[in-house]
Amino acid sequence: MMEEAQVAPTAYELAERLQADHYDRIAEDYSEHYGDKYSQEYRRRFINKHLFEGIELKGMKVLEAMCGSGETTSYLLEHRAEVTGLDVSPSEVEKFRERWPQAIGYCASMFSTNLEDESVDCVVVVGGLHHLHPHLSDAMREIHRVLKKGGYLCFAEPHKGTIVDSVRQLWYRNDDMFASNEEAVDLAAMRAEFSEMFEQKAEIYSGNVGYLFVLNSMVFRIPLSVKKIYSPLFMRLEAMIEKIQNAKFSCMAIGQWRKI
Fold first, then answer.
1. What span, in angstroms and rounded, lies between the C-alpha atoms of 156 and 111?
2. Model confidence over 47-77: pLDDT tens digits?
3. Residue 129 DSSP class
4. What is the pLDDT of residue 183?
5. pLDDT tops 80 at residue 28
6. Residue 160 · residue 185 · CB < 8 Å
7. Rounded Cα distance, 84 and 188, in Å
8. What confidence score (pLDDT) does residue 14 get?
9. Please, are residues 96 and 69 in contact by the beta-carbon 8 Å criterion?
10. In this predicted model, which residue has the larger pLDDT, 195 or 29?
11. Strand 252-259 vs strand 61-65: parallel, antiparallel, or unpaired?
């Protein structure tokens, strides 16, 4: 009997397999640390309010891309958006469906979502784009394709060109908590490449002690029993520092782009 020819995986498939395998390995700890009440409060106060400022979410078709088990979903549903969560990991999509039965969970690639052209009003990605190197540009074109004209891309990502990123690059190379293709996003390069496809509505630089030790407690292996002790204080400090923070000393960039 003739054996079937083995089809080599594409570069996209290799990148996403790496991402999915890595995420599945840390999924339990990830859900505990990023889904606890302190991380959710951090997201509400320091990420979500900037991501969606000025956008009326009620009735919008929102694609929560690279959703995991759905850490932004609660906010979107509270504001009466129609939510579809998309992730490449079947196990995470199943968790998303169980956790948010009022939303749609969809397993697909960010490079080929299989969604119709101009079918969503808003795409939101929190901490996902920096997992897509070296194919981020292709994912951005797919996002542009599925967005309606005038639709929004809202994202929050670690970004290049900061003091923090210099430390982050070293850490990425030496800590197995991170996948090998993780890399901070070069926003200046993104703006230049997609200037004819998106207009930049807002760009906010944020993230300091609360970002590091409340939102990213898993990265520092901080027990949740300890996290709950310092989180209220660190979020108060975050709010104070945020008022004087600039791009060079920030941990994340929050962007709101609109499809031209």
1. 19
2. 999 999 999 999 999 999 999 999 999 999 9
3. G
4. 87
5. no
6. yes
7. 29
8. 66
9. yes
10. 195
11. unpaired
